[in-house]
Write a structure and sequence with these properties.
The chain is an alpha+beta fold. The protein contains 11 helices and 11 strands.
């Protein structure tokens, strides 16, 4: 398992706040992030709280998930499921002063359900798993994305109903541009069961909620909690905390990372809270191991 040494950004909720300050349109079930900047390479890590549909209009946006890497170029799009951690790298084109122009649509499941119902698509799941892939954006979609930009200039005055109509228009255009996206939309709702042990070992250092873990395991929240309790004889929250603290002790002893870096690496979001619970578990503060 690789070790990260920086905080994971929760997306979309953290992207509208400093230091990111990106333009946002919000509606129940949807957040749209618009960014136009000049960069020669900005890297980071995001935890996707919702499904992400990403479009690049200028430049290049690279996404890494696990061992896979996907590069989204000008006039291309990619769809990623929620509750996963991805690394990203943003780069502008040297021919356009390193300009990077992209839009990110964070979609909640109820929005996809409404779209499927309105479009009268069959709800049967695809027999063939469609891997995450990059697709071309046609002229109609490019025109749609450009038409949305004025909405960011006065987003507080935009009616929610109008934003929802624009979102549904987007989803129809996406499926019309490449019908493989319909299979990917259906896959997002697919409940493929995975072993609980596999899911939590892969994600205990990520800023996941119990609902996220249940989703990733293909179970309802109540079924996940019930099965977890029966397997581990403790609650998911307690198990994850102890697992993180054990990992923290290992890193404090065998790595050169600072206490703060280790705090963020193992999924804690507050260094003072991390130090407190670490001392409660081991009887001494994490700083004691760095002085040893």
């Amino acid at each position: 398992m690789s070790v990260r040494n920086s905080a994971i950004v929760k997306a979309p909720q953290a992207l509208s706040r400093p230091p990111y300050n990106q333009s946002v349109l919000k509606l129940k079930g949807l957040s749209v992030i618009e960014s136009c900047t000049h960069t020669q390479g900005t890297k980071g890590t995001m935890f996707l709280e919702d499904h992400l549909l990403l479009f690049v209009l200028e430049g290049m946006y690279t996404v890494r998930f696990g061992n896979q890497e996907y590069t989204v170029l000008k006039n291309e799009m990619i769809l990623l499921q929620k509750s996963i951690v991805v690394e990203y790298e943003k780069s502008g084109d040297s021919d356009s002063e390193y300009k990077l122009d992209y839009m990110m649509f964070f979609l909640k499941e109820d929005v996809l359900r409404e779209f499927m119902k309105l479009a009268d698509y069959k709800s049967s799941y695809p027999a063939l798993i469609v891997p995450v892939s990059v697709h071309s954006v046609n002229d109609r979609l490019v025109g749609y994305l450009e038409s949305l930009k004025p909405y960011f200039n006065d987003s507080e005055k935009i009616n929610d109903g109008l934003v929802k109509l624009k979102l549904l228009e987007l989803l129809f255009n996406v499926v019309d541009a490449d019908n493989r996206f319909l299979l990917q939309f259906l896959q997002l709702k697919r409940k493929t069961k995975k072993g609980i042990a596999e899911v939590i070992e892969e994600n205990f250092m990520n800023p996941v909620s119990i609902s996220d873990l249940a989703y990733l395991s293909g179970r309802s929240l109540s079924a996940f909690k019930r099965e977890f309790q029966a397997t581990y004889n403790t609650s998911p929250l307690q198990w994850i905390r102890n697992r993180r603290l054990d990992k923290a002790e290992e890193l404090l002893t065998h790595s050169n990372l600072s206490v703060t870096d280790i705090c963020f690496t193992i999924g804690f979001e507050n260094a003072a809270h991390f130090s407190k619970v670490f001392k409660e578990r081991f009887g001494y503060p994490p700083s004691a191991l760095k002085k040893a």
